[in-house]
Amino acid sequence: MKNLVVVLFFITSPTLCFAQQGFHELQERYRNLSLKNKLLSSSILLPDLETFITHTANDSDKVAALQIMAGIYLEYDSYFDAIKALDNAQRLAEKLDSTTKASVLLSQAKLSLALEKFNEALNQVNMCIEITKNSDQTLYLKSLILKGRLFYYKGSFRQSIKQFSQVKALVSNDTSYFNLASIYSAQIALELGDKQQAERILDRIKLSTLNLLSEDKQLEHQVILTRLSMHNGNFKFAISQAKKLLNYTLGTRFLYLQAQLQDILSKAYLQANNYQQAFLYLQRYTLTTNALALKKRNNKLLQLEIIHNLARKQQRIVLLEKESLLSKAKLAKQAFEKQQLHREQELQFRKWLLFSILAIIISLILYYLWQRDKVFKHLESLVKTRTQELETKNILLEKLSNTDSLTGLYNRHYLHALIDNELAHVRRKFYQGQGEQYLVVMLVDIDHFKNINDTYGHTAGDAVLQQVSNTLKSNIRESDLLVRWGGEEFLIILKDFELNQAQIFAEQLRNNIEKNIITLNENTDKKIQLTCSMGYSHYPFNKNEPEQYNWENIIELADIALYAAKENQRNAWVGFETQQNLSSPEQVILDIKKVIKNQEIIVNSNISGNIKFK
């Protein structure tokens, strides 16, 4: 599941002594905690670690302890405290050796990944790789594995597989790194629908070496085997194994494993024609994925949610007060009727006096009812006001969840919510024989954006992103869709577009961006000229079989085209068009050069000469 991020800190530190208990012993206790008690027990280590950091004079030891603390904070989703701990570790590491600096960089990259700052995490991992490739093989292998996971979460399966293959080529098949790279490679093969490849990868793992992996990675291995059993039709075994694993993960923080197991159980029961159980686990899967999505909300959304809950609580209080008033009125009326009956029985001879008293009481009741109606109207007005405020906040909440706060463009969350309907609309046209207009998917990447941040600062970089997004919006139609894809990348979806117009559009857009002068700061006259690289594909990629290539395949092809544009020239665009008799998506993506050589795909570009693809 690409929208789910799990980060495990690799902890390496020297042996120390504190409060009659060595730091190495604390470290080993943390490593050996099982999934069932890790969240509960790891917090007990925090006071000892804080006291240790206060009293020790060894900066290397402090850095190691701060990394452990950051790992514990991350397990509690306390991102602010984790960031603070790693910032302190980075300041101390500046005075130490390059290996310590690389270790802190790797921890920061994992935190960036947890916060879905993919480009920042990639920069940190690349720096760690550069430092450790000739000095520390352990950190180097961990960096390569994390880089592969980053590409996986960004949807670049080809680059992810390349990283894991590099790891397996550097180590023997009886190491934890080989096992970890194999598990991740098998996971990608399964997502691409190649179960035979997944089985071949897992068969190379020596079962006797699985205990070298952490407990959650061993569980991931079991989950993949269970999924393969289901794909092979062994539904009974898949259900039994999935239930066993699901029961073990209950009460842990690894919701992503629970979601995968619930998905397996839902599909396995469906194949076994047990629809009741299939629906039950589908509901649980939906609840778990919703819980995972909820964890990704930023602090603004959480604050709005708190305000929303307070408004609802106030509304409930008003309703309770209203019910209390109604209950009091009912009790008062009952008391009055009982009193009236008692007076009639005992004081019949005082009839006229009774009539006078009744007249007074009736007047009081009428006045009370008038006052009550007045209070009720006031309460109804308050409820209406609170309801309107609640609706306004709900609208704001929905807008924040669907847009990028810097550029105001739609984000991936919004795109994922509507893309299936757009694809279905296009497929219907092609199935009905009306299809000559495609959905053109174009990735746009700002050239040398990192240099802008390094030279002028991140404020200038933000100004560049805002102005480029305005330029992109001015070049597309109102019916088209513009999304901030991540970092300096944008995604344009051109609806009902003819393929021969895609080249014209790409060239016009490239030319307009090149001509546009960017103002870095309104208070200065500093201006720069930018260029962008673009890669595009289209949906359906095979008009004779519109469903052969899914949305992820189209994005991957556009990413390959973008990568070619940047590698060959920059300030360029590369686009793919299809011929007849296309190979499978997996073959096309993994060996694009062969497919182009066989003329299954036409390459369009403004680049003169041959275009090199990796």
What does this structure look like?
By secondary structure, this protein is α+β, with helices and mostly antiparallel strands. It folds into three domains: 17-229 and 237-248, Tetratricopeptide repeat domain (Serine Threonine Protein Phosphatase 5, Tetratricopeptide repeat), CATH 1.25.40.10; 299-402; 412-605, Reverse transcriptase/Diguanylate cyclase domain (Alpha-Beta Plaits, 2-Layer Sandwich), CATH 3.30.70. Helices cover 67% and strands 9% of the residues. The chain is built from 24 helices and ten strands. The strands form three sheets. The protein has a six-stranded mixed beta sheet with strand order 4-5-3-8-9-10, sandwiched between helices. α5 (79-93) packs antiparallel against α6. The longest helix has 52 residues, at 351-402. The radius of gyration is 32 Å and the shape is globular.
Structural topology:
Blueprint: E1 17-18, E2 21-22, H1 23-32, H2 38-42, H3 45-55, H4 59-75, H5 79-93, H6 98-114, H7 118-132, H8 137-153, H9 157-170, H10 176-191, H11 195-203, H12 215-231, H13 235-249, H14 255-271, H15 275-295, H16 299-346, H17 351-402, H18 412-431, E3 438-446, H19 449-456, H20 458-475, E4 481-486, E5 489-497, H21 499-515, E6 517-519, E7 527-529, E8 532-539, H22 551-568, E9 573-578, H23 585-590, H24 592-597, E10 601-605
Parallel strand pairs: 8-9
Antiparallel strand pairs: 1-2, 3-5, 3-8, 4-5, 6-7, 9-10
Helix pairs in contact: 3-4, 4-5, 4-6, 5-6, 6-7, 6-8, 7-8, 8-9, 8-10, 9-10, 10-11, 10-12, 12-13, 12-14, 13-14, 14-15, 16-17, 19-20
